[in-house]
Design goal:
The chain starts with a strand and ends with a helix. The mean pLDDT is 96. It is 46% helix and 16% strand. It is an alpha/beta fold and 496 residues long. The protein has helices at 15-21, 40-46, 51-62, 68-78, 114-117, 120-130, 146-155, 174-181, 197-208, 211-219, 232-251, 271-281, 298-305, 330-337, 342-355, 362-371, 379-393, 399-415, 433-441, 449-460, 466-469, 487-495; strands spanning 2-5, 8-14, 30-32, 92-94, 99-103, 136-142, 161-168, 188-193, 222-226, 261-266, 286-293, 307-309, 357-359, 372-376, 421-425, 481-482. The longest helix has 20 residues, at 232-251. Helix 7 links the parallel strand 6 and strand 7. It has a six-stranded mixed β-sheet with strand order 4-5-15-10-11-14, with helices on both faces. A five-stranded parallel β-sheet has the order 9-6-7-8-16, with helices on both faces. The protein has 22 helices and 16 strands.
């Protein structure tokens, strides 16, 4: 299976090349030339396998450069019990009669990004060999909070790679920041960038599309790639857990094989919910995809009106990983909804770059709304939801998950839709103890982030993940703050 750029149908590469490149030279994102199909009998057969087996089946249909044996080996290592302790890699917890929580935070960095970023180093290093590339790969990452640590953890001291992460200065939780700035490894670098996530993400994209800089790095023995969800190797592993979530509901008797479910995803860059869309397009019985945003509700407005407009106030919220106004992965969805019309997509992206907005045609909007519903929740609504769910259900969720639960409850009340629903839970509540404590227990945060972890442990009678509690003993290695305009030079100087 080949991969096509969303901005140039003539740009065709293999799966391995797409993973190595990350971003197309024209600035577009790679997509498979066609989407594989899973039949009812395929899903039934997968229901008898563990997570590794299911993920192998899913990824083998997309990553045809790899044998099933290779993929099974990589996936088995990525999701080994030492990294994902629970009996189930991605457990599903029933919240009420209709809704269940898909817990995606049991990996080494306590966020859903681990599912892709524990696997990507294996896929990338294997892809380098398959493409005959012998340069050192330089991974550049812009993060709104969770991707950075997950990427650093995955690539730390991986031979033949170096990784540099940019996060918005003041735009993450303290725990998220410490996870990055204390990262160990001889091949890692972390910078805080002035501005918000979009400024960091745009800076990384400018580096990727700078052909002169790419040539300079090539002459020094380096090749640029990405671990953001613009890289297909980052996005594809996320498709698998929507299959396993569905299978979990079948195996538990909550639904019958073939019954549809709804899926709710808290999202900022549109990657996680796009993975659910791909699962549906590949044959997973899914009815509605519900896109949940925080106060930075650019996606809610787009799905509602057909106009994408980033020219608006930017808010620092209690769900910082969703504080995004330029949702890169939306480009992939637009490409598919407009019939793989690369000229039209290129026009939308040019308008976004020059004016900060674009409006899709009514026909495309109808296709969008046939698949997606959308809603948003501000910090007050998010906090109220955390408290309500804990009091009524005894379930403690983080701020991002609470956004999704609140949006789902509003959707269900408005539509009366009682379709069984899976809600993606993207992070541990202990990553955001300062917000969760007052919301769930009425306790005003006092002390540093580690004292807050202890207070949340006491109140919830749960144990904080060792990966977070252990940060107290670590020393911050990376404290430099730069302007977005300095990002390219910072990368160059680091690689000297």
């Amino acid at each position: 299976m080949d991969y096509i750029s969303t901005r140039d149908n003539a740009c065709r590469v293999s799966a391995a090349q797409a993973i190595v490149s990350g971003l197309s030279p024209d600035g577009g994102l790679f997509l498979p030339e066609s989407l594989p199909q899973f039949t009812r009998s395929d899903i039934e057969a997968m229901s008898k396998q563990d997570y590794v087996g299911c993920a192998t089946e899913v990824l083998s249909r997309f990553l045809t450069d790899f044998t099933k044996e290779e993929l099974r080996e990589y996936i088995g290592k990525a999701y080994a019990p030492a990294k994902f302790p629970p009996r189930e890699v991605a457990p599903v917890v029933q919240l009420d009669e209709q809704a269940a929580i898909l817990e995606l935070f049991h990996g080494p960095t306590c966020a859903f990004k681990d599912f892709a970023l524990q696997l990507l180093p294996y896929l990338l290093t294997a892809s380098l060999k398959k493409t005959g590339e012998n340069k050192t790969v330089v991974i550049l990452v812009a993060t709104s909070g969770d991707t950075g640590k997950a990427a650093l953890e995955g690539f730390a001291d991986v031979p033949g790679t170096r990784i540099c992460v940019f996060y918005p200065d003041g735009g993450t939780s303290n725990i998220q920041r410490l996870q990055m700035t204390t990262q160990e490894g001889g091949n890692v670098m972390v910078f805080a960038a002035k501005g918000n996530f979009d400024d960091a993400q745009n800076g990384v994209k400018r580096i990727f599309t700078d052909q002169v800089f790419a040539q300079e790095l090539a002459e020094r023995g380096y090749l640029l790639s990405s671990a953001n969800s613009i890289n297909w190797g980052r996005l594809a592993p996320q498709i698998a857990y929507y299959f396993t979530a569905y299978i979990s509901q079948v195996n538990s008797g909550k639904i019958n094989l073939g019954d549809p479910i709804n899926i709710v995803v808290p999202t900022g860059n549109f990657g996680n919910i796009l993975a659910a869309y791909f699962a549906k397009q590949c044959g997973l019985p899914v009815s509605r995809l519900i896109c949940a945003s925080n106060q930075n509700n650019v996606l809610t407005d787009f799905i509602t009106t057909g106009t994408y407009d980033r020219n608006r106030a930017f808010y620092l919220t209690s769900s910082p990983s969703m504080d995004i106004l330029i949702s890169s992965n939306l480009e992939r969805l637009l490409y598919l909804l407009c019939g793989r019309d690369d000229v039209k997509v290129r026009g939308y992206m040019e308008q976004l770059s020059t004016t900060g907005k674009y409006t899709v045609e009514n026909e495309l909007l109808e296709r969008l709304q046939a698949e997606f519903s959308a809603g948003c929740a501000d910090d007050a609504q998010t906090a109220a939801c955390i408290g309500r769910i804990y009091r009524e259900k005894g379930y403690l969720c983080d701020t991002h998950t609470a956004v999704a639960v609140e949006v789902y409850h509003n959707y269900r009340e408005k539509t009366g839709d009682l379709t069984p629903t899976v809600i993606a839970s993207t992070a541990s509540p202990f990553k955001f103890a300062g917000s969760v404590l007052p919301a769930a227990f009425g306790t005003q945060p006092q002390g540093d982030e580690f004292e807050l972890l202890g207070q949340l442990e006491d109140k919830s009678e749960m144990h904080a993940p060792a990966a977070l509690a252990g940060l107290r003993q670590k020393t911050e290695r990376f404290t430099r703050v730069i302007q977005p305009a300095e990002m390219k030079q910072a990368v160059s100087d680091w690689l000297l």
